[in-house]
Design a protein that fits this description.
This protein is an alpha+beta fold. It is built from two helices and seven strands, in the order E-E-E-E-E-H-E-E-H.
Amino acid sequence: MGGVTWGPLRETPDGVELRVWAQPGASRSEIVGIQGVALKIKIAAPAQEGRANAALLTVLARALGIPQSQVTLLQGQKSRGKIIFIRNLTAQEVAQRLELT
């Protein structure tokens, strides 16, 4: 169902857009939970030369049980607020796999 929105998730015909609030330089990488309208994720990598963004995509792909090639950073390359695109999953599948429901 194109355009379905739930919290940090917005379903599109090709997948899901996920709003993320990233915290680079944390002691360990972990998905914290919902913060406002975004999913807060702590990233151990520093915010230098795209390392935190790459680590963020890895954390999400592993948590979702999908190849990293299905997870793309759409917006927020240089900010903590980001939009991630997840291909070939529904908003409901993403919510269940990330235990947001």
